[in-house]
Amino acid sequence: MQVVPSMRVRVLCNVFLVAILDLELSAQWKFVTPGIPHDPDGKAVLTAPVPRRDGRPDLRGMWVAREPKGLDLTKGLKPGEVVMTPRSQALFEQRQRGEQDAENPEVNCLPQGVPKINSMPPPFKILQEPNLIVFLYEMFGRYRQVFLDGRPLPTNPNPQWNGYSIASWEGDALVVESSGFNGKAWLDYAGHPTTESLHVIERFERRDLGHMDVTATIIDPGGYTKPWSYTQPLMLVVDDELMEEVCENPKDLEHIRGRK
């Protein structure tokens, strides 16, 4: 089935794309990020080697998705790689027809969910300590904690939008495992559903100073008949910082198709 985003979805995505273009064109802060090598012309050398901390890749920094895949996480995948259950397929088709535009969480100022939140145009920052990694998201001012202290995932969690996350290192790759989701988030703007059985495995691999890949595997027996994966390239943002981004009461919600 061809994914055709609704008009509301396209408008929202255009707003986000304009926002990231503004970020790239004009930094809000007038300073030089410490520890970043620059060439004689003053341009950051993003192909410099991966920085390390305590023997591990140092993932700290402000990152932005390159060619963000949040519009449709399945784009570029082969036919048959993503197979939905009948219930999820029917729900997806309703969303494709625009019948649930008003139920889109972001239209209602609700969180994007995992892993979509790493595939949206607005930037995010990674803070890294030996036993804890924190993601600070500019979009809606969200945050996410990832624990590396050996604890297991909760067995009877209180369902959350971003779930619960633990991680471990596999060589130079940080592998994040998340579960305990509430099943309300859309995987992408196209409307691919999630359920409370969603389990996400993200593999963060920093290729050099300025580039990192995040490969996310979606395991959701309630919504999909088999696991599937996609990769989102990230780029380091230098000489700037996160801005405040607040989602206020959307006054156009009453005009969106699908509103009850």
The CATH superfamily is identified as Calycin beta-barrel core domain
Provide the helix percentage: 10-25%
How would you describe the shape? globular
User: Uncertain regions: pLDDT < 50 for 5+ in a row?
Assistant: 4-11, 17-25
CATH architecture label: Beta Barrel
Radius of gyration: 19 Å
Distance between the termini: 27 Å
Order of helices and strands: HEEEHEEEEEEEE
Based on secondary structure, the structural category is: alpha+beta
Estimate nothing, just give the exact number of structural domains. Answer: 1
List the strand order in the largest sheet. Answer: 3-4-5-6-7-8-9-10-11
Query: Approximately what portion of the residues adopt beta-strand conformation?
Result: 25-35%
**Total count of helical runs of at least 4 residues:** 2
Oligomer: single chain
Mind summarizing the main beta sheet? 9 strands, mixed, barrel
Q: What is the β-strand count?
A: 11
CATH topology: Lipocalin
The top-level CATH class is Mainly Beta
Look at the structure and give the mean pLDDT. Answer: 88
